[in-house]
Protein backbone atom coordinates (compact mmCIF):
# COMPACT_ATOMS: atom_id res chain seq x y z
CA UNK A 1 0.00 0.00 0.00
CA UNK A 2 1.46 3.34 -0.94
CA UNK A 3 1.55 6.21 1.49
CA UNK A 4 -1.23 8.75 1.22
CA UNK A 5 -0.98 12.49 1.60
CA UNK A 6 -3.64 12.66 4.30
CA UNK A 7 -2.58 14.46 7.43
CA UNK A 8 -2.52 12.70 10.76
CA UNK A 9 -5.72 14.35 12.02
CA UNK A 10 -7.74 13.05 9.06
CA UNK A 11 -6.26 9.57 9.45
CA UNK A 12 -6.98 9.47 13.17
CA UNK A 13 -10.60 10.50 12.57
CA UNK A 14 -10.92 7.64 10.09
CA UNK A 15 -9.30 5.27 12.59
CA UNK A 16 -11.87 6.22 15.23
CA UNK A 17 -14.61 5.15 12.85
CA UNK A 18 -12.87 1.78 12.39
CA UNK A 19 -11.32 2.40 8.96
CA UNK A 20 -8.71 -0.34 8.57
CA UNK A 21 -6.91 1.38 5.67
CA UNK A 22 -6.34 4.43 7.87
CA UNK A 23 -5.06 2.18 10.67
CA UNK A 24 -2.66 0.52 8.23
CA UNK A 25 -1.47 3.92 7.03
CA UNK A 26 -0.81 5.03 10.62
CA UNK A 27 0.96 1.74 11.29
CA UNK A 28 3.15 2.13 8.20
CA UNK A 29 4.12 5.66 9.22
CA UNK A 30 5.11 4.80 12.81
CA UNK A 31 6.04 1.11 13.02
CA UNK A 32 9.81 1.40 12.45
CA UNK A 33 10.29 4.15 15.02
CA UNK A 34 8.16 2.30 17.58
CA UNK A 35 10.00 -0.98 16.98
CA UNK A 36 13.33 0.82 17.43
CA UNK A 37 12.11 2.30 20.71
CA UNK A 38 11.01 -1.12 22.00
CA UNK A 39 14.17 -2.98 20.89
CA UNK A 40 16.42 -0.52 22.71
CA UNK A 41 14.63 -1.31 25.97
CA UNK A 42 13.79 -5.03 25.76
CA UNK A 43 16.77 -6.13 23.61
CA UNK A 44 14.76 -9.00 22.12
CA UNK A 45 13.62 -8.51 18.52
CA UNK A 46 10.64 -10.86 18.77
CA UNK A 47 9.39 -9.31 22.01
CA UNK A 48 9.96 -5.80 20.61
CA UNK A 49 7.77 -6.73 17.64
CA UNK A 50 5.06 -8.03 20.01
CA UNK A 51 5.23 -4.93 22.17
CA UNK A 52 4.97 -2.70 19.11
CA UNK A 53 1.89 -4.60 17.85
CA UNK A 54 0.23 -4.51 21.29
CA UNK A 55 0.96 -0.80 21.58
CA UNK A 56 -0.70 -0.05 18.24
CA UNK A 57 -3.75 -2.06 19.31
CA UNK A 58 -3.90 -0.15 22.58
CA UNK A 59 -3.56 3.17 20.77
CA UNK A 60 -6.31 2.35 18.28
CA UNK A 61 -8.70 1.19 21.00
CA UNK A 62 -8.02 4.19 23.24
CA UNK A 63 -7.86 6.79 20.48
CA UNK A 64 -10.85 8.62 21.93
CA UNK A 65 -8.78 9.47 25.05
CA UNK A 66 -6.19 11.37 22.97
CA UNK A 67 -6.97 15.05 23.40
CA UNK A 68 -4.59 16.57 20.85
CA UNK A 69 -4.16 14.60 17.62
CA UNK A 70 -0.96 16.52 16.87
CA UNK A 71 0.61 14.67 19.80
CA UNK A 72 -0.25 11.20 18.48
CA UNK A 73 3.38 10.20 17.80
CA UNK A 74 4.54 11.17 21.29
CA UNK A 75 1.48 9.50 22.83
CA UNK A 76 2.11 6.28 20.90
CA UNK A 77 5.80 6.34 21.84
CA UNK A 78 4.85 6.69 25.50
CA UNK A 79 2.61 3.61 25.19
CA UNK A 80 5.50 1.67 23.60
CA UNK A 81 7.94 2.80 26.30
CA UNK A 82 5.51 1.89 29.09
CA UNK A 83 4.84 -1.55 27.58
CA UNK A 84 8.58 -2.12 27.05
CA UNK A 85 9.43 -1.09 30.61
CA UNK A 86 6.67 -3.36 31.90
CA UNK A 87 8.14 -6.29 30.02
CA UNK A 88 11.69 -5.35 31.08
CA UNK A 89 10.71 -5.19 34.76
CA UNK A 90 8.92 -8.52 34.54
CA UNK A 91 11.91 -10.12 32.79
CA UNK A 92 14.30 -8.78 35.45
CA UNK A 93 12.08 -10.19 38.21
CA UNK A 94 12.02 -13.56 36.46
CA UNK A 95 15.75 -13.26 35.66
CA UNK A 96 15.14 -14.03 31.97
CA UNK A 97 17.93 -13.81 29.43
CA UNK A 98 16.80 -12.44 26.06
CA UNK A 99 17.10 -15.01 23.29
CA UNK A 100 19.02 -12.52 21.14
CA UNK A 101 21.81 -12.34 23.72
CA UNK A 102 22.31 -16.11 23.60
CA UNK A 103 22.03 -16.81 19.88
CA UNK A 104 24.27 -15.20 17.27
CA UNK A 105 22.37 -12.23 15.91
CA UNK A 106 21.92 -12.19 12.15
CA UNK A 107 20.20 -8.83 12.29
CA UNK A 108 21.33 -5.99 14.52
CA UNK A 109 19.02 -2.97 14.45
CA UNK A 110 19.56 -0.61 17.36
CA UNK A 111 17.23 2.11 16.21
CA UNK A 112 19.83 4.31 14.58
CA UNK A 113 19.17 5.36 11.00
CA UNK A 114 21.29 3.97 8.18
CA UNK A 115 23.49 7.06 7.89
CA UNK A 116 24.51 6.81 11.53
CA UNK A 117 24.93 3.02 11.52
CA UNK A 118 28.05 3.35 9.41
CA UNK A 119 29.61 5.70 11.92
CA UNK A 120 32.17 3.66 13.86
CA UNK A 121 31.89 5.86 16.96
CA UNK A 122 28.14 5.30 17.15
CA UNK A 123 28.61 1.55 16.76
CA UNK A 124 31.26 1.51 19.46
CA UNK A 125 29.11 3.50 21.91
CA UNK A 126 26.00 1.37 21.30
CA UNK A 127 27.98 -1.87 21.60
CA UNK A 128 29.62 -0.63 24.78
CA UNK A 129 26.23 0.40 26.22
CA UNK A 130 25.11 -3.21 25.79
CA UNK A 131 27.90 -4.34 28.13
CA UNK A 132 26.77 -2.09 30.99
CA UNK A 133 24.62 -3.31 33.86
CA UNK A 134 21.00 -3.64 32.65
CA UNK A 135 19.73 -0.71 34.74
CA UNK A 136 22.62 1.49 33.53
CA UNK A 137 21.94 0.56 29.91
CA UNK A 138 18.21 1.20 30.33
CA UNK A 139 18.74 4.53 32.10
CA UNK A 140 21.19 5.78 29.47
CA UNK A 141 18.96 4.62 26.62
CA UNK A 142 15.98 6.45 28.06
CA UNK A 143 17.99 9.60 28.78
CA UNK A 144 20.40 9.88 25.85
CA UNK A 145 18.60 8.09 23.02
CA UNK A 146 14.91 8.48 23.85
CA UNK A 147 15.35 11.98 25.31
CA UNK A 148 13.47 11.52 28.59
CA UNK A 149 14.32 13.85 31.45
CA UNK A 150 15.09 12.69 35.00
CA UNK A 151 11.51 13.07 36.24
CA UNK A 152 10.16 10.89 33.43
CA UNK A 153 12.88 8.29 33.97
CA UNK A 154 12.04 8.22 37.70
CA UNK A 155 8.43 7.48 36.84
CA UNK A 156 9.29 4.87 34.21
CA UNK A 157 11.89 3.02 36.30
CA UNK A 158 10.00 3.57 39.57
CA UNK A 159 12.98 5.12 41.39
CA UNK A 160 13.51 8.36 43.31
CA UNK A 161 14.88 11.50 41.69
CA UNK A 162 18.15 11.22 43.64
CA UNK A 163 18.55 7.57 42.64
CA UNK A 164 17.87 8.49 39.02
CA UNK A 165 20.53 11.21 38.95
CA UNK A 166 23.00 8.86 40.64
CA UNK A 167 22.17 6.01 38.26
CA UNK A 168 22.61 8.17 35.15
CA UNK A 169 25.83 9.66 36.50
CA UNK A 170 27.29 6.25 37.35
CA UNK A 171 26.13 4.83 34.03
CA UNK A 172 27.87 7.65 32.16
CA UNK A 173 31.06 7.11 34.20
CA UNK A 174 30.96 3.38 33.54
CA UNK A 175 30.39 3.97 29.83
CA UNK A 176 33.24 6.50 29.72
CA UNK A 177 35.65 4.09 31.44
CA UNK A 178 34.75 1.22 29.10
CA UNK A 179 35.13 3.48 26.06
CA UNK A 180 38.59 4.57 27.21
CA UNK A 181 39.66 0.93 27.45
CA UNK A 182 38.55 0.25 23.85
Amino acid sequence: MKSTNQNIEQLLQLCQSGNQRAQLEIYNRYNKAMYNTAIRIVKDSFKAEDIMQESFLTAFTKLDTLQDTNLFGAWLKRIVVNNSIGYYNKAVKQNEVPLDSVIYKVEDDNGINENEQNNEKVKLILDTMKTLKPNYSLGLSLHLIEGYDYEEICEIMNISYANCRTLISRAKDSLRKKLILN
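The two ends are 45 Å apart (CA to CA). The first helix runs from residue 8 to 16.
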